[in-house]
Write a structure and sequence with these properties.
Distance between the termini of chain B: 55 Å
Structural class of chain A: alpha+beta
Strand content of chain B: 15-25%
Order of helices and strands of chain B: EEHEHEHEHEEHHEHEH
CATH superfamily of chain B: P-loop containing nucleotide triphosphate hydrolases
Number of strands of chain A: 6
Oligomer: heterodimer
Number of helices of chain B: 8
Strand order of the largest sheet of chain B: 5-4-6-3-7-8-9
Largest sheet of chain A: 3 strands, mixed
Structural class of chain B: alpha/beta
Largest sheet of chain B: 7 strands, parallel
Radius of gyration of chain A: 18 Å
CATH class of chain B: Alpha Beta
Order of helices and strands of chain A: HEHEEEEE
Strand order of the largest sheet of chain A: 2-1-6
Number of domains of chain B: 1
Strand content of chain A: 25-35%
Radius of gyration of chain B: 21 Å
Helix content of chain A: 25-40%
CATH topology of chain B: Rossmann fold
Number of helices of chain A: 2
Number of strands of chain B: 9
Shape of chain B: globular
CATH topology of the domain at 3-68 and 100-111 in chain A: hypothetical protein PF0899 fold
Distance between the termini of chain A: 39 Å
Helix content of chain B: 25-40%
Chain lengths: 115, 242
Amino acid sequence: MHELSIVKDIFDTLEGHYGARVEDVQQIQVTAGLLSNVQPVLIQNAFDAFIAENRGYAEMELEVVVNDIVAYCDVCQQNFPVHYHRFVCPCGRSSSTIVQGNELYISKVIFKQEK
Amino acid sequence: MSTNTSSPKSAGNRVGSVQCDNTTLHLLKANDYVANAIRERLKDVCVINVCSSPGSGKTTLMQETGKLLANDLNISVLVGDPETERDAIRMREVGINALQIVTGGMCHIEAQMILQALDHIDITGTDLLFIENVGNLLCPSAFDLGEDYRVTLLATTEGDDKPKKYPRMFLTSELMLVSKSDLLPYVPFSVDAVTKDAREVNPNIEVITISTLKNEGIDEWCDWLKEKVKQKKESRLQAEVK
């Protein structure tokens, strides 16, 4: 439900980091773990709404990569995939040590080619 | 085409070719920054972020807790709602120092709102600060408010399948309060099943079953709070010694 504020955060972050070069960005890739509560379709819609209002970004594209949840088992000393939010290792022990799935970040920025 | 795999800071100066920057620019960074500023400011106060769906009994529990612990702890409450000041009024009616945060339709409280609210409430001498979040099991889970602990209420009327449906809320909580236990005889809700599901999501989550209206489990809840306040004060003292 707060996808629009995340989209604003995307642009604030880009502007803070790249300054005026933001206008040359062609595509950005956002990586969102399954636990970040970000729905690719909703964030895409929010992104489209944002660039429609902000003409300078009209040609920018967004790609959302979703990461599965991975946890670490202290006993087996290895990672295991978490399915259906069941944080239980195949060995039967519970673990809440999350290795992947919480993240939400801009993972790639592609700039336009000079004409 | 060139690909730049170095750190974002070293990127740039490559105008003229297609440039691909692999980055880790974290979103919600601003919120986390403000949350840490709150932690720094509230070093002497135990801060508890209370989350749940709308109507699971957060405000009623805050009222009762305030009354029961009136002689033990100095309690203040910041209460968030999309609209109206009703909840803060309910708190003040029972003598609790409270300030309403009206989020203006927003589905969660952000750290910035707490930081601003702290300038408008006198929390001198406060041992325990509750942040009563907006009723919502989704969005509030993503926003650190500078709290020491997150407590999530789940009412027996909501169904015992919620920890699996809203995993991040339960994953990020230290305590789950199963509320409205007086209704257990009338609703299809299993405390054992909900505890099992919650612990599959978060093996460390503590569970207390309560009924604010019938005064069940409230002593255990109050003891939990007193212990957490004590721990905070002790860790503060230890930090000062060092």
